[in-house]
Write a structure and sequence with these properties.
- It is a single chain.
- Helix content is 68%, strand content 0%.
- With 150 residues, the protein is an all-alpha fold.
- It has one domain.
- α4 (45-63) packs antiparallel against α5 (78-87), α5 crosses α6 (93-109) and α6 (93-109) runs antiparallel to α8 (125-149).
- The radius of gyration is 14 Å and the shape is globular.
Length: 150
């Protein structure tokens, strides 16, 4: 069960089944997080926050046994689900999309301050917190878009 949750309820294994590697697994996980975020559009922001916190807790718990030599295994994507859910708290429509994209890019490239440093924390913290920090960047940009354009 722990392995299944770490794999984002199985989506982390999809790339290996499709093209024989973990490349892109994080985007599959973030995609699932995004779909959960869309399902939560009608809910108040505090439900989004609760879902994100639950995902962060699950990520810390489920990913812990699978970190080898301080590395984040590609198929472990519960952290990307958590980061995506953080990014879209209280957002819908265009602001939601912008937040999700910014969070995903911040996680992939690790250029915004704090993302790479968070990744270097000991597991399971490093596995999860880089995605959460990337999600916070997405959330900030998403809220700016929501306020400026709507």
């Amino acid at each position: 069960m722990r392995r299944f949750i770490a794999a984002g309820f199985g989506v982390g294994w999809i790339p290996d089944k499709l093209w024989g590697s973990d490349n892109g697994a994080g985007t599959f996980g973030a995609g699932l997080g995004g779909l959960i975020g869309i399902a939560l559009w009608p809910a108040p922001w505090w439900i989004d926050t609760a879902a994100a916190l639950i995902a962060v807790g699950l990520s810390l718990w489920a990913s812990a046994p699978y970190a080898r030599d301080l590395e984040d295994p590609g198929w472990v994507v519960i952290d990307e689900i958590a980061g995506a859910l953080v990014a879209v708290i209280g957002l819908t429509g265009l602001a939601w999309f912008v937040a999700w994209v910014i969070a995903r890019l911040a996680d992939i490239f690790k250029t915004p301050p704090g993302v790479r440093q968070a990744e270097n924390l000991r597991p399971p913290w490093g596995i999860t917190t880089d995605d959460v920090v990337a999600g916070l960047y997405g959330l900030a940009v998403g809220w700016i878009v929501a306020r400026v354009f709507f």
